[in-house]
Amino acid sequence: MTPITATSLPSSPAPGEPGWLPEPPSSPAHVIADDAEALAVAERLRPLFAAEVKERDRERRLPFAEVDLFSQSGLWGITIPKAYGGAGVSQVTLAKVFGTLAAGDPSLTQIAQNSFEIIDVIRQTGSEEQKRDLFGAVLAGKRLGNAFSEFGGKNVEAFETKLVRSGDHFTVSGRKFYSTGALFAHLVPVVALDKEGHVVVAVADRDAAGLEVVNDWSAFGQRTTASGTVTLDAVAIPEARVLPAHIVYENQSAVGPQSQLIHAAIDAGIARGAIEATIDLVRNHARPWIDSGSDKAGDDPYTIAAIGDLKIRLHAAEALLERAGRQLDETIADVNDETIAKAKIAVAEAKVLTTEVALAAANKLSELAGTRSTLGVHNLDRFWRDARTHTLHDPVRWKFHAIGQYYLNGVQPPLHSWI
Which residues form a coiled coil (predicted)? Predict the structure, then answer.
């Protein structure tokens, strides 16, 4: 594999220009062989992701060049089964990859998250022809985006986007939001309802007539995910690009907990990055409090204890994340109601701790480093803003409820994909 260096980053186009379309890969993406290589590539990418994260966040500068590097590295295809040319990595490895990258830049890392959910939908619902087509496209370096959620509706499953037959193909119309990855994608999977009201995924070409991606993401955190609007006006979809996703969304499957595992891993990465930044600031920049009697901030006994507490919480969260990954691997190998419930609960337990440590670590950074840590030149509030924004994806308060119901009353976790 060609070594990844900072100079290998191509120049970025101006971000957010209306009508901008990503160029197709100029050469095939690297194909990662196994779990060990996936972890090694993630470790090599992390410092490149972190190099300009402060400036990208401050300026809302979208990471076009970095996303190209990300997908060309081969990491976007690591869960594609070996039978179709992928590495087929474990869920334990997948979580570690996302946690590593998110410690460098959680926004950039988040851009790939939805692609992995769709890969699993393809694996479980696609025909052999669809698997060869779509898996082959990803392995070649094409990026899958996301047009799933909608801003209105009674709840997150109330979809108004419709798929309609039109001769020998279909058309899809609707309006989506929280469309992380769509701006950077070559293919945009769209969640829609067919004429029977079943959920399908229609995979649209990014340059299809009637499909527009609007760079209107204005959240105070995860500023460079471009998680804004996608509008669809009678976008043509070939019949071969429609997946019967209701098979996995209306029945028990591992798609939901796998998606949740990645979210939990991103939160763990945010915590790891925040704790590392805190330790650096305390060691090299912070002043000791006057009452401590210490010459260095790192000798303050309360600061020492606080760092110890954060490390314990992070390691506990990472341990539960790894445990959840192992359970998911076991579940995928033997899918039934019991194993799906175990996977959902294990991931929910990890999600609780990763959420809590991400928020705690981001908050403690300023507390332990002092007032100078709040200066705009450092942009350290991005850790808290990213943690607070990303952990809102699905409410942890309902994780406690599902976990308690399972252990106390033997109630299976909900069928939907948000647990």
Answer: 307-334
Residue 22 and residue 183: Cα distance in Å, rounded?
8
Using CB atoms within 10 Å of the CB of residue 85, give its burial: 0 to 12 exposed, 13 to 18 middle, 19+ buried.
Answer: middle
Estimate to the nearest angstrom the gap between the alpha carbon of 223 and the chain centroid.
14
Show pLDDT as tens, one digit a residue, over the chain (419 residues). 544 454 454 454 454 577 789 999 999 999 999 999 999 999 999 999 999 999 999 999 999 999 999 999 999 999 999 999 999 999 999 999 999 999 999 999 999 999 999 999 999 999 999 999 999 999 999 999 999 999 987 888 889 999 999 999 999 999 999 999 999 999 999 999 999 999 999 999 999 999 999 999 999 999 999 999 999 999 999 999 999 999 998 888 999 999 999 999 999 999 999 999 999 999 999 999 899 899 999 999 999 999 999 999 999 999 999 999 999 999 999 999 999 999 999 999 999 999 999 999 999 999 999 998 999 999 999 999 999 999 999 999 999 999 999 999 999 999 888 88
Which residue, 219, 215, 210, is CA-closest to 229? 215
Sign for the pseudo-dihedral over CA of 115, 120, 126, 129: positive
Question: 114: how many CB neighbours lie within 10 A of its CB?
Answer: 25
Longest dimension (CA), the chain: 80
* Predicted TM-score (pTM) of this structure: 0.94
- The answer to whether the beta carbons of residues 108 and 101 sit under 8 Å apart is yes
Decide: 122 and 247 in contact? Cβ < 8 Å: no
